[in-house]
Amino acid sequence: xxxxxxxxxxxxxxxxxxxxxxxxxxxxxxxxxxxxxxxxxxxxxxxxxxxxxxxxxxxxxxxxxxxxxxxxxxxxxxxxxxxxxxxxxxxxxxxxxxxxxxxxxxxxxxxxxxxxxxxxxxxxxxxxxxxxxxxxxxxxxxxxxxxxxxxxxxxxxxxxxxxxxxxxxxxxxxxxxxxxxxxxxxxxxxxxxxxxxxxxxxxxxxxxxxxxxxxxxxxxxxxxxxxxxxxxxxxxxxxxxxxxxxxxxxxxxxxxxxxxxxxxxxxxxxx
Length: 271
Description:
Mean pLDDT is 85; it is low at 1-16. The chain has helices at 3-14, 18-23, 27-31, 40-63, 73-82, 86-103, 112-142, 153-163, 166-179, 182-198, 203-215, 221-226. By secondary structure, the protein is mainly alpha-helical.
């Protein structure tokens, strides 16, 4: 065999598959799992939501009859990641302000039932959209664990290969079966999907992985119920709804009375 051909064969033997090479890099990523009780990412995400409402509350008080325009880049990113625009957040803030007015006894001429119904609706909507912001913040915390080529498609494919590998799935299935804790299992699997998104996975790719895991017996019905059959709806870090109690230091009398007048945000909650 000519030397040139032998050289080509040797080269093929020693050049490692980029996906196999990436598999060596994901062990640290696989192991990343926030403590459910502490979960700094979840606390940071929820605090961000409260901070937007706080700023809107203060802005109406300062401007005496109008919302303040302009937000920090981080807040604009939050709007984008939750797919909820400034107008939506203004509506949420309006309901919270009226709730505070009623609950503190500052003003009783408000419809408590209407206020609570609105706030429950806003919280439900936000809870269904919060995953995008959680992923964004989690990615920041995960950066130090990612190799320099984390944007390489090979790393995403390696993670996909792992999550859909029958041996890995069987290992996890037996592990969860021994633990007998569906909540812990859901918590871990949720973060595998979060990390998969951080690496660039699409929702279609995640659904394919979940389908494989269901067929292999890893994703059981109790776990799927935790997810409400959509992993993005699972957010135990946002189990406590946002309410006026999250803003105990803000004074009601900073809001002018005309906030409740016809044509202004609070009017819909007046009896």
